[in-house]
Amino acid sequence: MSNKFLIILLSLLITACNNQAQQQDPIPTHDTFKINSKAIGETRTINVWLPEDYAKSKDSLPVMYMPDGGTAEDFPHIANTMNGLIKENKIPPFILVGIENTVRRRDLSGSTEVEKDKEIAPVIGGAPKFRAFIKDELFPEINKRYRTKNTKGIIGESLAGLFIMETFMTQPEMFDYYIAMDPSLWWNNHYLVRTAKEHLAKFPEGKKRLWFTGSSASDIAKHTKNLAKILTTENNKNVIFQYSNEPKEEHATIYRATKEKALIWTLNP
């Protein structure tokens, strides 16, 4: 068997495995629309999943936002999970809004003074603009299109988790519920952990719920654990948090392994 044939066969097997993996997460019925963002300077695709009873009711619902929200990203498995939990009365009904990626590492990273951090992508540090897009453009659009309450949450993993933790620390008023799996807190020499006490000291009135977790990834676990200690020591009355240490999970498995308990704890205050 020639090397060329082996390479072709391997490529076909990888493609088949990828297709099979995608089939494990059926894409639920959902709405899709595009929004021209002035904050980011590009058109973004938005996917919206509605609970089954939404059409039968006149009730307004809270909204869960998610980066990595494309149909080929994490949107299907989070929508399917929320659907199951709602049907089992384990969480209240929520609208899910997925933001499809264009330049992921740009949007989800803040600024950094560490040169090695800058090697992850040609353009980084776009988190402030991405945050402005969500707050000033996406929130109003979702409120216009759907029956929504003021209650909002956000969920994500890895760099999306970093974006969520940065939002929690720097603009906590944006959301009521924060869920971050394996957040990349190593970014910028673990800046968010180093400055956590300062941010908590300036934390505004109004209770926020934060659920976060750390896997066996050594570059993440030590920082999530340190942040959990700081949150415990500072004991801010407006921060209700839960840290889930998951040493048996890897960075690639932790999102799916912890999403149910994260949603159940966070959305049942």
Which helices and strands appear, and what pairs or packs with what?
Layout lengths: L2 H21 L7 E7 L4 E8 L11 E6 L8 H13 L7 E5 L4 H5 L18 H19 L2 E10 L1 H12 L6 E5 L5 H8 L1 H6 L6 E7 L3 H17 L4 E7 L8 H13 L3
Parallel strand pairs: 3-4, 3-5, 5-6, 6-7, 7-8
Antiparallel strand pairs: 1-2, 2-4
Helix pairs in contact: 2-9
- Write the CATH homologous superfamily: Alpha/Beta hydrolase fold, catalytic domain
Instruction: Tally the structural domains.
Output: 1
Percentage of residues in helical conformation: 40-55%
Q: How much is the average pLDDT? A: 92
CATH class: Alpha Beta
The tally of helices reads 9
Give the strand order, joined by hyphens, for the main sheet: 1-2-4-3-5-6-7-8
CATH topology: Rossmann fold
TL;DR of this structure?
This protein has 9 helices and 8 strands.
Describe the protein.
With 269 residues, the chain is an alpha/beta fold. The chain has one domain: Alpha/Beta hydrolase fold, catalytic domain (Rossmann fold, 3-Layer(aba) Sandwich), CATH 3.40.50.1820. Helix content is 42%, strand content 20%. The chain has an eight-stranded mixed β-sheet, sandwiched between helices. Strand 5, helix 5 and strand 6 form a beta-alpha-beta unit. Helix 2 crosses helix 9. The N and C termini lie far apart (61 Å). The N terminus is likely disordered.
Question: Keywords for this structure?
Answer:
eight-stranded mixed β-sheet, alpha/beta, Rossmann fold, disordered N terminus, globular, 269 residues
